[in-house]
Amino acid sequence: MRVAIVTESFLPQVNGVSNTVRHVVHQLVRLGHEPLVVAPGPGAPSFHGAPVVRVRSLGLPGYRSFPVGLPDTAVERVLADFRPDVVHLASPIVLGAVGLRAARRLGVPTVAVYQTDVSGFARHYGVRADLLVDRWIGRLHRRCTRTLVPSTASYDQLRRLGVPDLHLWRRGVSLDLFGPRHHDAERHATLSHGGRDLLVGYVGRLAPEKQVRRLVEIADIPGVRLVVVGDGPEQAWLRHRLPGAHFTGQLTGTHLATAFASLDVFVHPGENETFCQTVQEAQASGVPVVAAGSGGPRDLVDHGRTGLLYDPGEAHGLWRAVTAMVRDEALRTRLAEAALAAVQGNTWAAAVDDLIGQHYAAAVAAPRRAVA
Question: What is the pLDDT averaged over residues 185-210?
Answer without folding.
Answer: 96
